[in-house]
Amino acid sequence: AAGLVPAMESADGAARTLLSIGRLSRGPPFGRAHSRFGISPSGRLLPPAPRSQENADPQRTAFLLRKQWTLYSVSPLYKFSNARLRVYARLLSAFIAAEKQKGLAVEVGVELDIKVAVSSLPDLKGSDQDQAAILVQLSSRSPASPKNSEEKLIWSGWFCCVSGDDLSENVPEDFTCLPLFLANGAESYTSIVGSWFQKTFDCSFCRLAISPLNLSWMAAMWTGCKVDKTASAMELVFSVPCLPQPLDISYAIHPEDAKALWDTVQKTPGEITQQEVDVFMDCLYSHFHRHFKIHLSATKLVKVSTAIASAHCDGIVKFLQSQYLPGVLMLLTELAISQIQ
Amino acid sequence: HLATSLPLPSEMDHLRPRIDLIAFMIDIKSKYSLKNVEASLAHVDAGFFLGKVCFLVTGVGRVNYCSVEMNAIWKLGEVYCSPVLFCELELEGIRVATAQRLLRMLQICAGHIPGVSALSFGSLMRNSADE
């Protein structure tokens, strides 16, 4: 049998996937030990119950809610220092100005004066070993408007690491682990800020896509979270393959019903197993099949929305409840780390 | 012979040639395909599991489209003592190589290769997978 080592670039570029087969005749080489290739752990620890707000001020992270964030995984940053954030802001500002000079105009027409702010978000970390999150914000003020007029926030991006011990333990000195990057705003700014970080800290950014398998984990984990107010419906969106016209199926479930179902399924204390997630999803699928004679298990799960957060397979998330933010970030950090490794 | 599930329709039994190898195809993008294979396995005579069955997992080129949990597939291979092969049908090179590989396995299962039986080849495949 011939040996093949192809690299398959997914058509939409949302994620780079690398398939390396040594020699087909030797049987499957991606060992069960590796966390690549969609192998999710057979169990995940439940994130700790949301901390009461003694240290964390919910207002400080409130601005992260209800915004659409595009996810990236970032390899460890070389010689990044928490003490030099102001310097970085100045350097990034100069870089952006230089890029605009070069004619890589981000806004056609109006000349915008872009101000860069880099700050630290110490509340967003899981363990003490985690690096505090770093926030980068781009605001603009039109030079024509008066000096004291309000600056408008045009782009935000933040790096974070929540319970990323797997990565930070194995990384040499001088490297800072902030594997998850979230961006909101124009793609052109994301690309400029990303290139500056890549050049300055020798790291690389890669879009983080979320597989249907991981989305079903999110559906199960987030359904189990207790929400005080009347929660919004849980919604799952599926894309049907192999049709001449693309077809999306949206399946909305009453949040109380979903939680009741999950509560009967989830038995292991403090942990969620793959089997529990499978049973939960299978129940939802068979209920749907009974009514509509459609096998949702043959389609691709592309989006999950619950009361605490929503996630799309292209790697786009929205956080809706600040108390569960660390738990969601912990899962996303894990996905980012497995993409890096 | 291609079938979407087992058992095969009994009306054609007398016209069907002897079956030497069964390759169960699981599409990693479809949980349904795994369930379908699991249900079809129940209709296979035990004698086939002595090296005449294999699992072919397709769609492996796109990690981010994965709907099936890998552990479930490994377990299937272990429980039914049959090798698990991987391929990506969308890439011609892999498609051709996989077809050649299956053909080779078929020749062994049909008894065309002197000195190598289906059973011995099957255990060879399993041992190399465990390394």
From TrEMBL, chain A:
Keywords linked to the UniProt accession: Centromere, Chromosome, Nucleus
This protein's record includes keyword Nucleus: yes
One term under GO cellular component: nucleus
Compartments, as annotated in UniProt: Chromosome, Centromere; Nucleus
Protein name: Centromere protein L
Protein family: Belongs to the CENP-L/IML3 family.
InterPro entries per the UniProt record, alphabetical: CENP-L (IPR025204)
Origin superkingdom: Eukaryota
Automatic annotation (TrEMBL), chain B:
Highest taxon in the source lineage: Eukaryota
Keywords, in A-Z order: Centromere, Chromosome, Nucleus
InterPro entries with a match to the protein in the record: Centromere_Cenp-M, P-loop_NTPase
Subcellular location: Chromosome, Centromere; Nucleus
Keyword Nucleotidyltransferase listed: no
Signal sequence, start to end: none
Pfam families, per database record: CENP-M
Keyword DNA-binding: no
Primary localization: nucleus
A GO term from the CC aspect: chromosome, centromeric region
Name used for this protein in its record: Centromere protein M
Underlying gene: Cenpm_0
